[in-house]
Design a protein that fits this description.
The chain is an alpha/beta fold. The chain has 13 helices and 10 strands. The N terminus is likely disordered.
C-alpha cells in the first residue's frame, strides 16, 4: 500500500512538472513572438535609414560630379583665345569650343603671307592660334622659328602625312584641286570639257582658262606642285607652259576662278573642289571635274604661335579640333568629302572624290622648294602674274 501511495505521488509530481514545463515553453514562445514583432519594425527602420543614406550619398556624388563637369566646361572662363583664321565661316566651330571650355575667341582675318611677314616684323606672336591656309606657309613659319611644338594623345590620331613629325603644325583637312566648267560656253564654241591636265594644255582652250596666282593662292600653288610631283620636273614644267599659254592672266583672289566661271567670263576655272563648287555648278549649270590623271591636294594647316600668351588654350583647341564632333563640323563648314578629312573613320560629305586619284605628293619638299617653284612660275607667266 505504501509503495502504491508513493507511486501515485510520483505520478502526480511528474504531471505537475510537465504542466509547468509546457507553461514555461508557451511563455517562451509568446515572448519570442513579442520579441520578433518588436525586432521587425526596428530592422525596417534600419533598412530605410540605409536607403536614405545611400540616396543622400548618391545625390552628393552626383552634385560633386556636376560641379566637376561644370568646372571642366568653364576651365578657361574669363580668358580669350586669339585666332588668325582664313575665314569667319569657322565661327560656329569656335563657338562650340567656347561652350565646352568657357574661353572667348577673337578672330583676325589675314592671308598666310601676311601672317608670316607681320610676325617677323613685330618679332612676337600676333595671336595664339593660326587656323587655316596652305601647309607651305606653315612649313616656312616652322623654319623661321615662329611656331610652338605640341604633342598629345589626341594629335597621335592624325596620320603622319598630315602633320609635322615634331608637332609644330597639323592639318585640319585637305584641299583638293579640280576644274569647274561652264558647259554653256563650251557648247557655244563646240568644245568638249577637259578631263585631264594634259587636256587642259590643248591650244583649243586658249583664253578660256582662269587660275589664281600660285604666289598668292595656296590652292593653286598646290596645283602647280602637284603637276611637278605627278609628271616630274621636266615633263611637269613643259606641261604647265602649255597650260600657261591658255591663261590670259592670273587672278589675285583665290575665289575668282569659281566666280568668274560661274558668271560666264571664262569656260574653265581651276578651283578648290568642295560643296560650294557643287552648289555653284547646280545653280549656274556648270560641271565639277576631278582630273582623271591626278588630283592635286594640300593639307590645310593649324599651329600654335611660339611664345603666345594663351598656349594652354591653343593646345586645348587642337585636341578639340581632332575630336569626332569638331571634324564633323569642319566637314560641314568646309563642305569636305569624307576622303578630305584627316582623322580616319570619321564621315564627311559624299562628293564623289576618288581617293585613288590623289597625287602621290612629296610634302617634304612642299615648303622647301616653294621659292624655287614660284620663281620658275614667274619666269614662265611674266606680266600675267602681277601681284600688285
Amino acid at each position: 500500500m505504501k509503495s502504491n501511495f508513493i507511486s501515485k505521488i510520483s505520478l502526480a509530481t511528474a504531471m505537475l512538472l510537465a504542466f509547468t514545463a509546457c507553461g514555461a515553453e508557451q511563455n517562451a514562445e509568446d515572448t519570442a513572438t513579442n520579441d520578433t514583432s518588436v525586432e521587425q519594425p526596428v530592422e525596417q527602420e534600419v533598412e530605410e535609414a540605409k536607403d536614405d543614406l545611400a540616396y543622400e550619398e548618391a545625390e552628393t556624388v552626383e552634385e560633386e560630379t556636376e560641379k566637376e563637369d561644370a568646372s571642366q566646361d568653364n576651365i578657361f572662363e574669363g580668358r580669350t583665345l586669339n585666332v588668325v583664321a582664313t575665314s569667319d565661316s569657322y565661327v560656329p566651330l569656335f563657338e562650340e569650343f567656347t561652350n565646352e571650355t568657357g574661353a572667348d575667341v577673337e578672330f583676325l582675318s589675314m592671308s598666310s603671307g601676311e601672317v608670316i611677314s607681320r610676325t617677323k616684323a613685330e618679332g612676337k606672336a600676333m595671336a595664339d592660334l593660326w587656323f587655316g591656309g596652305g601647309l607651305d606657309a606653315f612649313m616656312a613659319a616652322k623654319d623661321d622659328g615662329l611656331l610652338e611644338e605640341y604633342n598629345s594623345d589626341m594629335t597621335y590620331k592624325i596620320p603622319e602625312e598630315y602633320k609635322d613629325v615634331h608637332g609644330y603644325y597639323f592639318s585640319k583637312g585637305l584641299t583638293v584641286v579640280g576644274f569647274l566648267v561652264n558647259d554653256g560656253i563650251l557648247e557655244e564654241k563646240g568644245l568638249e570639257a577637259p578631263k585631264t591636265w594634259k587636256d587642259l594644255a590643248d591650244p583649243k582652250y586658249k583664253g578660256e582658262v582662269i587660275m589664281s596666282n600660285p604666289a598668292i593662292s595656296g590652292t593653286n600653288y598646290a596645283a602647280l606642285k602637284g603637276l611637278l610631283d605627278l609628271y616630274g620636273e621636266e615633263e611637269g614644267w613643259a606641261l604647265f607652259e602649255k597650260i600657261n599659254d591658255n591663261i590670259d592672266f592670273y587672278s589675285k583672289r583665290g575665289k575668282d576662278p569659281q566666280e568668274k566661271t560661274a558668271q560666264g567670263e571664262f569656260a574653265i576655272g581651276i578651283i578648290p573642289v568642295d560643296q560650294k563648287a557643287f552648289d555653284a555648278a547646280e545653280d549656274y549649270g556648270l560641271t565639277v571635274i576631278y582630273p582623271e590623271d591626278g588630283i592635286p591636294w594640300v593639307p590645310e594647316g593649324v599651329a600654335i604661335f611660339k611664345d603666345s600668351e594663351n598656349t594652354d588654350i591653343a593646345e586645348a583647341f587642337i585636341d578639340f579640333m581632332i575630336s569626332e564632333k569638331a571634324q564633323s563640323m569642319i566637314a560641314e563648314i568646309d563642305g569636305k568629302d569624307t576622303n578630305q578629312l584627316i582623322v580616319p573613320d570619321i564621315k564627311g560629305l559624299d562628293l564623289g572624290l576618288p581617293k585613288d586619284k590623289l597625287i602621290d605628293e612629296d610634302l617634304s619638299t612642299f615648303g622647301s622648294q616653294r621659292e624655287e617653284i614660284l620663281n620658275k612660275f614667274k619666269e614662265i607667266a611674266g606680266d600675267k602674274a602681277s601681284e600688285e
